[in-house]
Amino acid sequence: QVQVMESGGGLVQPGGSLRLSCAASGSTFSISAMGWFRQAPGKQRDLVASITRGGSTNYADSAKGRFTISRDIAKSTVYLQMNSLKPEDTAVYYCNVVGGMGSSWGQGTQVTVSS
């Protein structure tokens, strides 16, 4: 079993930056990948970025060039640095962890981009 907790959301003006953190605890030895998804009101939950245990990354087109995902294996933590934020980035951001234990989700953190 893996528990997941996100932090770092908030209100930011367009063009601003935020860094989200996701800490996993429990059976972290079995984690093979961690990722960030987001869900805006009335829309489906979509992948933003993911990173494997080996460091391979994958980004949604909307995130390329603006967002950077990184991880600290020793801390079982993944980060999402978000720059040049736009109003359309407003959503609840969820962390997902996958591995031998299956898939685990955090409760989400709200990101609001507004002037």
Q: What can you see in these coordinates?
A:
Helices cover 0% and strands 58% of the residues. It is an all-beta fold. The strands form 2 sheets. Strands 2, 4, 5, 6, 9, 10 and 11 form a 7-stranded mixed β-sheet that branches. The protein has a 4-stranded antiparallel β-sheet with strand order 1-3-8-7, with no helix packed on it. Strand 7 and strand 8 form a beta hairpin.
Number of distinct beta strands: 11
Largest sheet: 7 strands, mixed
Question: Whole-number radius of gyration?
Answer: 13 Å
**Into which percentage range does the β-strand content fall?**
over 45%
> Ends: how far apart?
40 Å
Q: What string, H for helix and E for strand, traces the elements in order?
A: EEEEEEEEEEE
Helix content: under 10%
Structural class: mainly beta
Mean pLDDT: 96
Shape: globular
Low-confidence stretches: none
The number of distinct helices, counting runs of at least 4 residues, comes to 0
List keywords for this structure.
58% strand; globular; 115 residues; seven-stranded mixed sheet; mainly beta
Summarize the structure.
The protein has 115 residues and is mainly beta.
List the helices and strands and how they pair.
Blueprint: E1 2-7, E2 10-12, E3 18-26, E4 31-39, E5 46-52, E6 57-59, E7 67-72, E8 77-82, E9 91-99, E10 102-105, E11 109-113
Parallel strand pairs: 2-11
Antiparallel strand pairs: 1-3, 3-8, 4-5, 4-9, 5-6, 7-8, 9-10, 9-11
